[in-house]
């Protein structure tokens, strides 16, 4: 099938090497993964916990919400927040590779190992989230409920994705796509 015009020819040269056969799939992937990658890259600075995220000597704002560093600098909440940040940010970077078709189909071992790593470190992140929930964003009931629901949904989603790896590939793909949406919804500022 001959391309309709020069733009279509150019776009096919962009998305075909990535493993996409349809332009609209590439556009949806680019929007979703581009957003996730941009959000994650903007949060990389938070890996400097005392330097950027919760700097006690900062004159202006920090990465944390106003007043939260009071708790995030105390044990066990400091441990929980570090556990969460130091696991979810790398997991978010790694998950971007999971949805590139050429990796899924041609570099299968990397796709599997990367997927297992994402699941394990994301579940560790959920443990950190449970620790900090009591004081996150004021710790009111609605915040705790939302956080608890997201931890439960993502944990169930990871279990379903893991089980469906060998049983039903189409269900596995659906589970992982839903998990990305859950994770974007769970992150503060992730859906505003």
Any key phrases for this structure?
transmembrane, transmembrane helix, globular, mainly alpha, 9 helices, 192 residues, membrane
Structural topology:
Layout: H1 6-15, H2 23-43, H3 49-53, H4 69-72, H5 77-98, H6 101-106, H7 108-132, H8 141-167, H9 169-186
Helix pairs in contact: 2-5, 5-7, 7-8, 8-9
Rough shape?
globular
Helix percentage range: over 70%
What is the N-to-C succession of helices and strands?
Answer: HHHHHHHHH
Q: Indicate the proportion of strand residues.
A: under 5%
| Average residue-wise pLDDT | 87
Spans of 5+ residues with little confidence (pLDDT < 50)? none
- The assigned structural class equals mainly alpha
- Counting H and I runs of at least 4 residues, what is the number of helices? 9
- Number of β-strand runs: 0
Gyration radius, rounded = 19 Å
Question: Main sheet?
Answer: none
Number of domains: 1
The N- and C-terminal alpha carbons lie at a distance of 41 Å
Describe the protein.
By secondary structure, the chain is mainly alpha-helical. The chain has one domain. It contains 9 helices and no strands. The radius of gyration is 19 Å and the shape is globular. The termini are far apart. The model has no long low-confidence stretch (mean pLDDT 87). The chain crosses the membrane at residues 26-46, 83-103, 115-133, 145-165. Keywords: Membrane, Transmembrane, Transmembrane helix.
